[in-house]
Amino acid sequence: MSSAVLYKLIKKDGRARRGEIKTPHGTIQTPVFMPVGTAGAVKAMKPEDVKKMGAEIILGNTYHLYLRPGHELVREAGGLHKFMNWDRAILTDSGGFQVFSLGQLRKITEEGVEFRSHIDGSKHFISPEKSIEIQTALGSDIMMAFDECAPYPADRSYVEESMQMTARWLARCKEAWKDRENQALFGIMQGGMYKDLRRESAKMTVDMDLPGYAIGGLSVGEPKEIMIDVLDDCAELLPEDKPRYLMGVGTPDYLFEAVEHGIDMCDCVEPTRIARHGMATTSHGRLNIKNAKFERDFGPLDPECDCYTCRHYSRAYLRHMFKSGEIMSSMLLSEHNLHFLVKTMENIRKAIEEERFLEYKKEFYEKYGYEQTE
Amino acid sequence: MSSAVLYKLIKKDGRARRGEIKTPHGTIQTPVFMPVGTAGAVKAMKPEDVKKMGAEIILGNTYHLYLRPGHELVREAGGLHKFMNWDRAILTDSGGFQVFSLGQLRKITEEGVEFRSHIDGSKHFISPEKSIEIQTALGSDIMMAFDECAPYPADRSYVEESMQMTARWLARCKEAWKDRENQALFGIMQGGMYKDLRRESAKMTVDMDLPGYAIGGLSVGEPKEIMIDVLDDCAELLPEDKPRYLMGVGTPDYLFEAVEHGIDMCDCVEPTRIARHGMATTSHGRLNIKNAKFERDFGPLDPECDCYTCRHYSRAYLRHMFKSGEIMSSMLLSEHNLHFLVKTMENIRKAIEEERFLEYKKEFYEKYGYEQTE
């Protein structure tokens, strides 16, 4: 059993879990939101500023880094940590999700996936073994198994076959991984919105006895109620003594739902992506900085936020930066949006410790303007 | 006489001057290179990082800030310093240079310049009085007089008329400025490449008895030898006890030439502009990070540089960032390029103190790959 990643459950509040994950690059307090650094950079952010806001782990994308600059180059550079100047933990996805998103450009077989690069159209092939090879070269602390993420909606038969193949691919990933000491492998359960398939997938995944497990194939376009209903089942199928990661989830409400159902880790590109489009997430809901009403608004983006952006700049300035096409706009909004989610998770952890998670959720939702799900 | 800006000459080495300029927002060590923050931000740089590299004054563009977000908005925000989160000195240009660059879009009369906005085509009028009004609202420490910068090449008769009008405009600027205590007004001498016109212009400008003087209309496309020849004459025409500012100059060789001829202040958008195009200025000359030879170059941009970028990132990483279209590329290259010029000026100041300016210039040129001008 690999010692690269060790989970410790500290406290429970309902199903919400307060814990920590030990990695070769530091200990992560959970539940945690992981900023995404797709191509070897959290977009528009210096690593020091990502650290300053309290982020303890970021995510790198295997698909992007494999195509550019290439995993062998990253290996030669001394690994992804060194290459991108990030000395805390890194989780890499398997490349599967991005490859499947290519649609017409890819072909799936039992062996793996053949696809054409979105950059130059060149032909490539990623198998479970290849994905592990790439992630090994990148040197991430947590590697993800190569899975197929079925689309939504999808026929039961397609989802079932896909889920079975994902299980066979997981066995091949584990074999390729060889239980190494400095990198952990997480398995991913699939099964779409079919609860019995989810159960079967969870069992096959957990049977592989890995350092951690993820739930894939949720938040792929299904209505929120369905997501929560399936999640409600899924999380309980995963062992208590291992970290549980809900992939691709990052709006505040989804974070709360995830944690409420026993999830420890989340990630999403949303905070930095919407930042580049002039959108901010605040305590009082989402805000579009392009809005004319902010033209002479000299208050901060979020009066309750203590991030760099909110401490130093006004909405009027941020709007001006966005409208002038200044890079500064992406820099400042990305920093705020990431800070907001990282701090929200910090507050969630505190709430769990004090056994008032649901209370905090209610407060947050009311202020944010979300409808309560209960 | 305004006390907003006071110059102190500390030491001379040949004609090179080591001094300092006291402003309401701190003292500036001269000779100084001023990073440009066109629209209220040094592009792709946080102000804290601009400060960290040692910059003591930046430049703001009146034309841009007048059109967007508007000088009245900046005034309401508490002035440009507060609006853009920069608590050190700011110099604003007069808007003249940008307006004249609009070509077909502007019409010059004795009264001022009518022009159409490059943003939305709306009609505007800037006169000497209006320029001072805008700069007053911006709250810069140093305001520049509204002048006409004649193009190169230009007929003697055009340059002469233009220079005479600039002198009349300067009188109007001074009248509008009213010798206020917290903002200094610098006059600008013109005269193109005609030395006798330069002399006449210098006399008329200095006769206005202002806190500082600038040389405009150089580095506008003329050959370097002509620039240096005219500069050689110009600087000496300005009083010893006031700061001398050579406008729009920013490549390393032009900095050295400026200082050698007795200039105290320079500015240029070049370092940040070329950064966004993947170009870096280093001790060993200019470097194009897109170049294939840097693909697996894991050394720093400039081995002799101690900037943030050179301390933490490799050429391979910077090339990858640029090729991936990451904002990080502009951030890191801008920081290096500005740092390089600011530090070069620091070294120049030290060399003057130690009376080895020409020696340092020779060393720098040899390493950089410049041909010596002597």
Report on the structure:
Chain A has helices spanning 47-52, 62-67, 71-76, 80-84, 96-100, 128-138, 156-177, 195-206, 224-237, 252-260, 270-276, 308-312, 315-323, 327-353, 357-368, and strands at residues 6-13, 16-23, 26-30, 32-35, 57-60, 89-92, 106-108, 113-116, 123-126, 142-144, 184-189, 212-215, 244-246, 265-268, 279-282, 285-288. With 374 residues, chain A is α/β, with parallel strands linked by helices. An 8-stranded parallel sheet of chain A has the order 4-14-13-12-11-10-6-5. A 3-stranded antiparallel sheet of chain A has the order 1-2-3. The longest helix of chain A is centred in the C-terminal third of the chain and has 27 residues, at 327-353. Chain A is globular and about 60 Å long. The A-B interface holds A 39-41, 43-46, 64, 68-69, 73, 76-78, 83-85, 295-296, 298, 308, 312-314, 316-317, 319-321, 323-324, 326-328, 330-331 and B 39-41, 43-46, 64, 68-69, 73, 76-78, 83-85, 295-296, 298, 308, 312-314, 316-317, 319-321, 323-324, 326-328, 330-331.
